[in-house]
Amino acid sequence: MAANAEIRRAADRAVTTTPWLQSRHSFSFGDHYDPRNTHHGLLLVNNDDIVEPGTGFETHAHRDMEIVTWVLRGELTHRDSAGNHGVIYPGLAQRMSAGSGILHSEKNQSATDAVHFVQMWVIPEVAGIAPGYQQREIGDEALAGELVPVASGMPGHDAVIGLHNRQAALHATRLKPGDAVPLPRAPFVHVFAARGHVALEEIGELHEGDAVRFADSDGRRVTAVEPAELLVWEMHAALGG
């Protein structure tokens, strides 16, 4: 394995389990604190959540955080104290900027089907901005076999939605067996196998829930072994850097 890459296996993640939620944490979160695992680059949270039908997160507060939600299966309903309301489903990108402070809830309003989603947090470059919300559909065709900028604050990125950080971008792709894409070249890259099975050039195989953390990513290729969906963070700075 390349010295600048670290594989983090799905089974090694901390898990929060309640009667209505199963949440797997790539980094320290809530009651699960590990001082050796607090972030990678600018990414503080990568939670892989399954919420049961008719349940969800009641109204709660956030501040000074860019929160991106990506649904893999089902639908998630968002409401916040700024008056924003949206239903997030597979192929729709959503970002909430907590800024100076916001309250929101996230509910699975289906009576029969669970919702499975990944929620990711990065810090904004400037604290205390006005809270904001953005969602936009991407579409299956755009995601097929290509690494698509989903959310970005980086100059020159034609991303679907924006981020209030010029050093960070989230890419997504859906790959069929044999499809291959190059990873971004950046000081920090986080690759999360949200679904399926892929092979990472000179590094190894990733199965659902596995991740790789790169320092000084050199653009090596990732190839689908089985149908797969990847979430890839490209970051050109780190916390405190």
Q: Could you describe the 3D structure shown?
A:
- This protein is mostly beta strands.
- The chain has one domain (5-235): Jelly Rolls (Sandwich), CATH 2.60.120.
- 2% of the residues lie in helices and 55% in strands.
- The chain contains 1 helix and 20 strands.
- The strands form 3 sheets. Strands 1, 13, 14, 15, 16, 17, 18, 19 and 20 form a 9-stranded mixed beta sheet that branches.
- Strand 17 (185-200) and strand 18 (204-207) form a beta hairpin.
- The radius of gyration is 17 Å and the shape is globular.
- The model has no long low-confidence stretch (mean pLDDT 96).
Write the layout of secondary structure elements.
Blueprint: E1 5-8, E2 14-17, E3 21-25, E4 43-51, E5 56-62, E6 66-73, E7 76-80, E8 85-88, E9 92-97, E10 102-107, E11 115-122, E12 132-137, H1 140-143, E13 148-152, E14 161-162, E15 168-175, E16 180-182, E17 185-200, E18 204-207, E19 211-218, E20 221-235
Parallel strand pairs: 13-14
Antiparallel strand pairs: 1-19, 2-3, 3-4, 4-11, 5-10, 6-9, 6-11, 7-8, 7-10, 9-12, 13-15, 15-20, 16-20, 17-18, 17-19, 17-20
The CATH superfamily name is Jelly Rolls
Low-confidence stretches: none
What are the secondary-structure elements, in order, as H or E? EEEEEEEEEEEEHEEEEEEEE
Q: Which CATH C-level class is it?
A: Mainly Beta
The main sheet comes to: 9 strands, mixed
Overall CATH architecture: Sandwich
**Proportion of strand residues:** over 45%
- At CATH level 3, the topology is Jelly Rolls
As for the number of domains, it is: 1
- Fraction of helical residues: under 10%
- CA-based shape: globular
Pfam families: Pirin (PF02678)
Family: Belongs to the pirin family.
GO molecular function, one term: metal ion binding
Keywords: Dioxygenase, Iron, Metal-binding, Oxidoreductase
